[in-house]
Amino acid sequence: MPVVSIILPAYNQATHLGQAIASVLAQTYTDWELIVVDDGSTDGTGAVARSFTDPRVRYFYQANQERSRARNFGIQQATGEFIAFLDDDDFWLPPYLEKQVAHLRAHPAAGLSHTWSYDTDPAGRMVRVSGQGVPGAATSEAFLAALLINNRIRSIAVVVRAEALHAAGLFDPEVRQAEDWDLWLRIAQRYPVTTLPEALVCYRRYNLFMPARLKQRGMETALTHIVEKNFAALKDSPLYALRGEALGWAHWRVAFGLYALGDIPGGQARLRQALAAYPPLFAAPYQAFIESAAYQADELYDLFTPLDEALTCLRRFFDHLPAEAAALRPLRRRTLGHYAGLHVFRSYERRDRAGTRRAAWLAVRAAPHWLRNRGFAAIAGRALSGWGWPAQPPSGV
User: Fold this and answer.
1) C-alpha pair distances (Å), 185 with each of 112, 254, 377
2) What are residue 204's DSSP bridge partners?
3) pLDDT digits (tens, 9 = 90+) for 46-76
């Protein structure tokens, strides 16, 4: 019986599935089984999976039933002590499993371990490191408190003890968006969670408009459903006091997505719900609101959001505030300036010198405090002078 069972759901991903499977075969830790669940693909996905003849690779086909059911089917076939997850268009670096297994062995009480990750472009070239979480082992309550507000864990960077996974109840097949967040919450209610602070996996991003994609996957109901469901299990816990904050953030994320889609009445209605659920998010000194609005504008696209599209979305939001949110209107300039400053770093990541210069000029004009940020000043100076400006994008991983 293998120590690690790897669950890989696949759907119409013949283009990248081979790289995902090859990254498993290249692992320095070799005591594993890979369970590929083809969720009703109509392209060459099955042929790609079957082309790998290593006996540790197991292939299953089922009619299309969505990710949660595909993963649950794979888990039911698994025999390992640990369960790892990989998606059909992502890939791991060679030491990933070796370090994850060692980390869980060193923290025997932990139910789940996760690492940081690299974001890559569609071609698989690294663009940045993405990592959240406190290194080492956190108590279940400490990690759960942060996780209740926002998902901090990518599924491809997770290894779970099989007993913890089964105790939590697997993936909820009725949840089509953020279903992994729901599962991590249920595990964190029962076990400590540990973070391995090293980027060991690669998460492929695309130039997709995320609000449209998330709406298609049930954005308007999924987030609040997950919050309500998990707080219902915490009624006797001190963490139940965070329910209003968690609901406020969930409503706010949906509200911004609806504004981005041009659904003004829907966005206004959700913003009212966010205001009612958690007023401090929208209260003086307003920094939490400004940062969250800028962050959500930055996340409009899966990879890099164009500057003008983000600014247009923010302007649309401020142009159509409901009466209950009138106190936010004077924050328009500061919020756009904060986003422009954030975009300076994003433009630098993709080595866009002209875009960096333009964003820096907008940021300084609207929010001069950016000049006190050393990283911002260094990047803006390079963009203006050309000295030290990288000529090539980051190399592939």
Assistant:
1) 11, 20, 39
2) 120
3) 999 999 999 999 999 999 999 999 999 999 9
